[in-house]
Amino acid sequence: MDPIRILRSRTVVMATTNIDTDQIIPARFLTTTTKEGLGAQLFADWRYDATGAPKPDFILNTPAAQGCQVLVAGRNVGCGSSREHAPWALVDFGFRAVISTEIADIFRNNSLKNGLLPVIVDAATHEWLLANPGAEVTIDLESRELGLPDGRKVVFPVEAFARFCLLNGTDEMGYLLGQGEAIAAYEALHGKQPTAATA
């Protein structure tokens, strides 16, 4: 996955509270094991009518949403069932960050492991973002700061190892595979240690 260091983007605002993972990617699309193409099904039940045609007034179908990498959502985004397909769909659509005052734990963890940065902000910052859709923001993962157009900077929390992986465009497995030389050197130095069964 591509590293996240500094994101500069307009925002897409979906102010709905309690956006759950079944709304982000409906269960009927969970049969795939690949990430590619899931962006087309993102928010499918809200985004398309009964014939499958895009609803022109849904935000993701408007010209204003095209090219945006930051989604501002209402409180408690990502609640509901656990599914990695939710961050997969958001990233495949083009989002790299989700901002809210509250992000469900499992969704937050799945996002961090799949290239989507969850940004938790205070109520006043969130209120401003909801009231100013399309605002140009800067997210600096190195300094853990969200920059607003008026110059304000808001620090957000992110777990250290997850931050390292996002900055370097890797995941947990990629990190472990990248330690091959260090692991081999350790094993060469210490040799195979006897276990209780063989001692």
Name its key features:
alpha/beta; Aconitase, domain 4; 7-stranded mixed sheet; 31% helix
Helix content: 25-40%
Major β-sheet strand ordering: 4-3-2-1-5-6-7
Number of helices: 8
Radius of gyration: 20 Å
- The CATH architecture assignment turns out to be Alpha-Beta Barrel
Percentage of residues in strands: 15-25%
Secondary structure: number of strands: 7
The CATH homologous superfamily is named Aconitase, domain 4
Order of helices and strands: EHHEHEHEHEEEHHH
**What is the total domain count?**
1
By helix and strand content, what is the structural category? alpha/beta
Distance between the termini: 45 Å
Name of the CATH first level: Alpha Beta
Mean pLDDT: 92
Topology overview:
Layout: E1 6-14, H1 21-24, H2 44-47, E2 70-73, H3 85-93, E3 97-100, H4 105-113, E4 117-120, H5 123-131, E5 136-140, E6 145-147, E7 153-155, H6 160-168, H7 172-177, H8 180-190
Parallel strand pairs: 1-2, 2-3, 3-4
Antiparallel strand pairs: 1-5, 5-6, 6-7
